[in-house]
Amino acid sequence: MEITGTTEVYGLIGSPVAHSISPLIHNMLAKKTGLDMTYVCFPVAGRDVRAALEGAFALGIRGMNVTVPHKQSVRALLSSVDPLADAVGAVNTLVRDGDGFTGYNTDVEGFAREAAACGILLQGAGVVVVGAGGAARGVCFSLAKEGAGRIVIANRTKEKAGRIADAVNSWKGETLVIPAGMDILSDTEKLKSLAGSGYLAVQTTSVGLYPDTESSPVDDPEFFAQAAAGIDIIYNPEETRFMKYMRQAGHPAYNGLLMLLYQGIASFELWTGRKVPKEAADEVYAAMQQEMAGRRK
Ligand code: ATR
Mean of the per-residue pLDDT values for the chain? Predict the structure, then answer.
């Protein structure tokens, strides 16, 4: 795409951002939809986030993504925050408004759209979420929003699972999420009584992430045998140990690359008001897969 005097600039702020795949997503979407826009990465340290937002507003930047470590702290610097993003406590997308930027969380939608694309019905589903970090929070809100029937969240530090459960349950107005320690993952009967059998297992910890590719936060064959499907939000490696176990148990397993694609598409749609056609989404996904394969070499 040719950059001209009218090209609108979008971007990502975070630290680090140099290896982000978001420029690939958004520049390809711009090309596919024929919009005169470009997307670049801005490495921004914590002390500079306020100045970066003021500068971005002054420069006429229409929208930005926010990544680690600013997803929480940026909220205080926005003119408004979407109620769902406010409940999640994390913002990953900024849309320019009259006074500054409004914050949204498209990770929540990204997870729901990945599940839909994989043919996984979240409505009424029993789900076991492994991990209780920032990513798990978005996943649990997504599950609650999509009408999951029962969610067990297991984490090494049980208190953190408790905090996510409290936040989601108070947002939902019912006891939907049950916090637990990791030991529940090997307690077949208890897990079955809480999540039902045939649950969706979602892996959100950093265990199994490259280069730690031989590890899984749960190894018990019964845990995988009792599941119906698995999603690991890691996308490097392409097949994590967790996914391998799930497939060995005879169930489908998906990595997190589609979630990454769909959070990007949701941001793009918020910025531009355009609906991304499926064909364009498929082409961007193929390019993302190719990019990741190249990085793994
Ligand atoms: P993210 O934002 O990507 O979710 P995070 O907030 O740092 O990252 O969360 C990392 C998650 O991986 C946490 O659930 C963490 O467990 P703790 O809350 O107990 O720290 C989990 N995790 C990391 N290393 C782990 C390990 N070796 N075993 C089990 N869980 C681990």
Answer: 97
Identify whether 71 is a catalytic site residue.
yes
Tell the residue nearest (CA) to atom 5 of ligand 1. 133
CATH number for the domain spanning 265: value is 3.40.50.10860
Which CATH number do you get for residue 228? 3.40.50.720
Does the CB atom of residue 92 touch ligand 1 within 6 A? Answer: no
Whether the pLDDT of residue 297 is over 80: the answer is: no
60-81, pLDDT tens digit by residue? 999 999 999 999 999 999 999 9
- Rounded alpha-carbon distances, angstroms, from residue 169 to 151, 174, 182, 195, 201: 10, 5, 20, 16, 19
Atom of ligand 1 lying closest to residue 130 CA: 14
Residues 55 and 139 in one domain: no
User: Both 277 and 156 in a single domain?
Assistant: no
Which of 206, 259, 263 for a ligand 1 pocket mutation test, highest count of atoms within 8 Å of Cβ?
A: 206
Residue nearest to atom 9 of ligand 1 (CA): 133
pTM beyond 0.85, yes or no: yes
Q: Are 13 and 63 in contact (CB under 8 A)?
A: no
Ligand 1: does its nearest atom lie under 6 Å from the Cβ of 193?
no
**Mean pLDDT, rounded, for 17-32:** 97
The answer to whether residue 1 scores a pLDDT higher than 90 is no
Question: What is the reported pLDDT for 73?
Answer: 97
Note the pLDDT of residue 61. Answer: 97
Closest CA to ligand 1's atom 16: 156
Task: Give the range of the structural domain holding residue 95, as residue numbers without chain letter.
Answer: 8-105+258-296
Task: Evaluate whether residue 239 is within a structural domain.
Answer: yes
CA 48 centroid distance within chain: 25
| 208 domain residue, yes or no | yes
160 Cα–ligand 1 center, Å: 10
